[in-house]
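Problem statement: downstream parser choked on a complex file, so we are re-checking the raw output for the zinc ion run. The parser issue turned out to be on our end (a line-ending mismatch), but while we're here, posting the original submission so the record is complete.
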Amino acid sequence: MQGNFSYHNPTKLYFGDESLNYLKDELSNFGPVVLLNYGSGSVKRNGIYDQVVAILNEAGKTVVENPGVMSNPTLEKLREGIQIARDNNVDFILALGGGSVCDYSKAVAASVFYEGDYWDKFWLKQEQPDAGQKILPVGCILTMAGTGSEMNAGTVITDAEHTFKVGHVFDDRLMPKFSILNPRFTMTVPDNQMKAGIYDIMNHIFEQYFSDFDDNTSDYISEGLMRGLIVASRAAVKDSQDYEARSNIMWTATWALNTLIGLGKREDWMVHMIGHSVGAWTHAPHGYCLAAVSMAYYRRAMKAGLPKFVRFAKNVWGVNADGKTDEQIAEEGLQALKNWMLKIGLPLTISELGATPEMIPGITGGTICYPAGYLDLKPEDITAILQESM
Ligand code: NZQ
Ligand code: ZN
């Protein structure tokens, strides 16, 4: 295993269909004024909002509400949340929703006490908050599985005015203090969002797995996560109310992006860079944007990282290697991935998401490029990938 690293994940998790029972105790660790961030109304329709507000009231909290955190949260909405937090002297932020609400809550938490231009410092310059800067604590009640935002310090924000979506991974200070993961809460997620979440999880694993050539414990953990996700995704697509499947998907999502399987790895993340730009232009669900560019990307990566793609074919998809060349084995692995994506109903083209040929220069321009994984892509390669994905 290569590399030097430290590992510390401070987020406390409560998992299972009784996990909300632990909210009241957790709240006692934080101050009296709670900013409750949530999305466009699903938590009111499915009753989770009422349960959470009842607990906040029992705990004696003053609740400041900030509804309307949209999917793929915008810079404009971030500015609004920061202002609300400042105006109300908020002590604690509670995120109630999917990855968008969790990301957004961390973004507000990082920026409330920063007096300069937070967008420029944290997202454009990718800097961390200065030592000693006050940061609000965040807790998450997750209602949708996919991003891993519940146990990481990632925050992805869209500057809608400039059609630019960018993520920043903060340091440990922005990790949620706790996250409540009740798989039953995910049962009302619309079908397309459930599938987008499933592919987001799979792609987070790919982004870490498809890099380097050394033997690394992280890759064995990744293979186990992928195999479990394939089983659970098939069951959930057949029956979205299958608790066993939904609980395994939720738990896999957390482990796919809580830094564990990236240890000792250079990692890739170029499918995410392209996918974020596709998302800024099409507003399609994040996981769909990743799925739609994946085949064109991994066909290229396969040539440069052949041994890992052979291993992927054998260990994840059970491809029989007898009498075949490495190229044939790796190609069968990618075909198995494509078949799985088709079977669960994921989009394989960006035109299905509303992208047009006229958008390609803009999507290319918004894609952050760097040497990553097995490839060192230039803007012209991104354009070619997008054209192949039309
Ligand atoms: O607006 P609401 O009412 O909350 O509805 C949401 C939204 O429309 C709905 N939903 C969520 N839980 C539901 C539900 N509907 C019914 N019942 C429920 N229980 O689903 C829709 C999508 O929610 P959203 O939070 O946007 O999805 P997701 O969890 O995929 O988050 C996407 C955002 O996370 C970022 C993405 O770029 C995107 O902005 N990411 C964050 C990452 C991180 N923190 O590490 C990594 C990821 O790669 C990703 O980039
Ligand atoms: Zn993702």
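For whoever reads this later: The first strand starts at residue 12 and ends at 15.
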